[in-house]
Design a protein that fits this description.
- With about 240 residues, the chain is of the alpha/beta class.
- The protein is about 30% helix and about 20% strand.
- It contains 8 helices and 11 strands.
- It has helices at about 15-20, 40-55, 110-115, 115-120, 140-145, 160-175, 190-205, 220; strands spanning about 1-5, 35, 60-70, 75-80, 85, 90-95, 100, 125-135, 150-155, 210-215, 230-235.
- Helix 5 (about 140-145) packs across helix 7.
- The longest helix is centred in the C-terminal third of the chain and has 16 residues, at about 160-175.
- The protein starts with a strand and ends with a strand.
Length: about 240
């Protein structure tokens, strides 16, 4: 079985997508075992996204993608038992997690699906283990992280004036980099549960977060009244 996710709103055509990606394909390859990356149309996040994915070893065999359910209300965490995701660059093989199966949710939850073309483009032969969570205990997500190289998907503050966005995102960045879980909630990041799980994992394994970049939506659309923040981190 193959899942054909909706990529509506992420890019106009395959050609436009290739132009965005070709301009940003980099490789620093720090051997990162975990990254935090945003989700949005690629014109907003490509710089941040490619900068943080570049820290993953090019020979990685599997990536576990952990993303919040943005459009569907769910409890716990779910995976898919499909064999492949369809992307503009070819099919991406799937290795299921040991979780409840919900195939339908993977067709439209863009926090996860917007990662798929990037992963296929940068790591053509990798398999992915997809996880979408709703109301969940971050410690359970931390248990999933232990299985291998992990992508935590989250935006930062959302739909606030730019001045407030800058203040909130710097607060969130400090909490991530100081590994402070307390008070890190969905007002600061829509993937707060996933980020808290990453912090828990970092504390357990004596790892540190390195920021690769930060931007916000106003840098692209010039709307300073309704701003969303985007940041990238990896663990060393």
């Amino acid at each position: 079985m193959k899942i054909s996710p909706s990529y509506s709103g992420l890019f106009d055509t395959k050609e436009s997508l290739e132009n965005i990606f070709k301009a940003r394909k980099t490789c620093s390859d720090t051997g990162a075992k975990l990254i935090i990356t945003p989700h949005a149309a690629y014109e907003y996040i490509a710089e941040i996204t490619f900068g943080v994915y570049a820290t993953i070893q090019q020979t990685v065999e599997n990536l576990t993608i952990i993303a919040p359910a943005i459009y569907n209300k769910i409890y716990g965490s779910v995976t898919t038992d499909a064999e492949r995701f369809e992307t503009p660059f070819g099919d991406l093989r799937i290795e299921a997690a040991d979780l409840e199966v919900n195939n339908k949710i993977f067709e439209a939850e863009s926090a996860l699906t917007c990662q798929l073309p990037v992963i296929k483009y940068l790591f053509p032969h990798v398999t992915v283990t997809p996880v979408i969570y709703g109301c969940e205990d971050y410690k359970k997500i931390a248990g999933i992280i232990k299985r291998g190289t992990t992508v935590i998907v989250s935006n930062l503050s959302r739909y606030v004036p730019e001045r407030e966005n800058i203040k909130l995102d710097e607060q969130t960045a400090r909490m991530i980099e100081r590994k402070q879980i307390q008070d890190l909630d969905m007002e600061l990041a829509d993937g707060a549960i996933g980020i808290c799980a990453a912090i828990e994992f970092a504390k357990q394994n004596d790892l540190e977060f390195v920021r690769t970049g930060h931007t916000n939506s106003s840098q692209t659309n010039h709307d300073t009244s309704n701003v969303t923040g985007y940041g990238g981190w990896y663990l060393v």
